[in-house]
Design a protein that fits this description.
By secondary structure, the protein is mainly alpha-helical. Helix content is 67%, strand content 2%. It contains 18 helices and 4 strands. The radius of gyration is 25 Å and the shape is globular.
Length: 481
């Protein structure tokens, strides 16, 4: 997670020093998640193997209908994990020592491929629980907390190295970004021997797999194997699963899950657009360097954590639909206030904080709604398998957005930064978010009732809280008059 976030605040300053144009910033943000996604396509099915539904029933064997089977896949052990760490080390060194923007982007792709080992880490944690659902959920929350801490630590590293003046080693000048990449590579190198020696339970024996299957069927853990999908790792989906408030209902609501996917896609477009444009905007409008940009991005990450804590404190009293609506309205108003020719830097920092907090609140609520609308099968094994499949759609949506939208945002910012469009750049930057948040508010109003959790919607009021019929005595009423 550190290798993902340390480069975000100061990437534009680094690419600009090598002669890159502003449209490169989008490619720089998309390179890392692309590498992670590319490698996770091969790693996500290990070591359990991919789940497939049986569609063809043998003659006279109707008992197999509705069951699932596995494909035979070779589990990835510590050798594969060590290889991925070596690739991550190589990628960070290439990013630090690359002579051109193109080489730096290749380094970010390699770093993303190496960071895809997070998939194997999640599998390791799943099997370390022995199939106990409660233990799985609690350990996944711990895992998400570590990932969130790593994401924040990466930005803290960017702030520290941003305060170091540039210096030269062997006729090669090192600024904040190369130093940060070398520090991350050194951390990988430091952990490589210990991981290779101790990381042996990723290839469990057959009796362990059979035991987990017998006890629990499919592991009911957050299927967040796409690391670039979540800025704070698996923290938010793990919290949703651990709290148990959102459970698959008896009847699936396919329409609501589709609406949530659309909203999640649009929401991530807004946030990735802010992240990509953050560096060039701070450089162009305020003349900030890597240090100032990193400090404001650290406030952005801290506001996400504050939003999660605020959402958890309100989740018992405030339903999901109200949290979603309130967050979207706040984002709409915040973007509307930014639609002006020039904004003071203090107002811009407040804009980052509000948007980040609202994003976390909405992300948590939409995840709860998405899980709640999936639907429960007769077989618990099928329910867990279906839940993993549908939740992977949510993560794939965020992964796709993080790659494609980053590239598009870079070109949009480049177009409106030209001299003949410069006066309208603030309206283009904030106008897109303003329009998207308006659509999100309208969608939430239309589907407001559909965003109520199903178990709360169908909850029967206990007798102690039911209203007693009112008895009116006409004679007593006449005497009182």
């Amino acid at each position: 997670m550190m290798s993902m976030t340390f480069a975000m605040p100061g990437m534009w300053t680094y690419l600009k020093s090598m002669g890159a144009t502003v449209n490169y910033i989008g490619w720089g943000f998309a390179a890392f998640p692309f590498g992670t996604w590319l490698a996770s396509r091969y790693l996500r099915d290990s070591p359990l193997g991919q789940i497939k539904f049986i569609t063809k029933v043998p003659d006279g064997d109707t008992e197999k209908l509705g069951k699932v089977k596995r494909t035979k896949t070779k589990p990835y052990g510590r050798s594969a994990y060590g290889l991925l760490m070596v690739i991550a080390i190589t990628g960070n060194i290439v990013y630090a020592m690359g002579p051109s923007p193109e080489i730096a982007l290749i380094g970010r792709v390699l770093a993303g491929i190496g960071a895809s080992a997070i998939v194997l880490t999640q599998r390791y944690i799943e099997f370390s629980t022995g199939g106990d659902e409660v233990v799985v959920r609690s350990r996944m929350v711990m895992f998400g907390a570590v990932q969130a801490g790593g994401a924040v630590a990466g930005v803290v590293l960017a702030v520290i190295v941003g305060a170091i003046p540039p210096f030269a080693i062997v006729n090669h000048e090192l600024s904040s970004q190369p130093v940060g990449a070398l520090v991350v590579a050194a951390l990988y190198l430091l952990l490589l021997p210990g991981v290779y020696v101790t990381y042996d339970a990723i290839s469990p024996k057959k009796d362990v797999i059979d035991y987990v299957d017998q006890v629990k069927g499919e592991i009911d853990a957050p299927p967040t194997n796409y690391m670039p999908a979540q800025r704070l790792g698996v923290l938010i989906p793990a919290i949703v699963y651990d709290r148990g408030q959102a459970r698959p209902s008896s009847l699936p609501d396919v329409f609501s899950t589709a609406v949530v996917l659309v909203q999640y896609f649009m929401l991530n477009n807004i946030v990735i657009g802010i992240e990509v444009a953050h560096g060039p905007l701070c450089d162009d409008l305020y003349g900030w360097g890597a240090l100032d940009t990193s400090i404001t991005y650290l406030a952005f990450m801290a506001a996400m954590l504050i939003g999660i804590m605020l959402s958890l404190s309100l989740s018992d009293e405030v339903p999901c639909n109200r949290r979603v609506f309130g967050s979207f309205v706040m984002m709409f108003v915040t973007f509307g206030l930014m639609l002006q020719p020039a904004t003071p830097k203090e107002q811009y920092i407040g804009f980052l904080v509000l948007i980040a907090a609202c994003y976390s609140i909405t992300d948590l609520a939409l995840t709860e709604i998405h899980v709640d609308k999936i639907g429960e099968e007769d077989d618990s094994r099928m329910t867990a398998s279906n839940k993993q499949m549908v939740m992977s759609w949510l993560n794939s949506t965020a992964s796709f957005t993080r790659m494609v939208s980053a590239i598009i945002t870079g070109y949009i910012y480049s177009y409106w930064s030209e001299s003949n469009h410069l006066s309208r750049r603030p309206y283009a930057v904030y106008g897109c978010g303003f329009g998207v948040t308006l659509l999100l508010v309208m969608m939430t109003v239309i589907f407001y009732k559909r965003f109520t959790l199903r178990q709360l919607e169908n909850q029967v009021v206990p007798p102690s809280k039911m209203l007693e019929p009112q008895v009116i005595n006409c004679l007593e009423a006449q005497e009182q008059q």
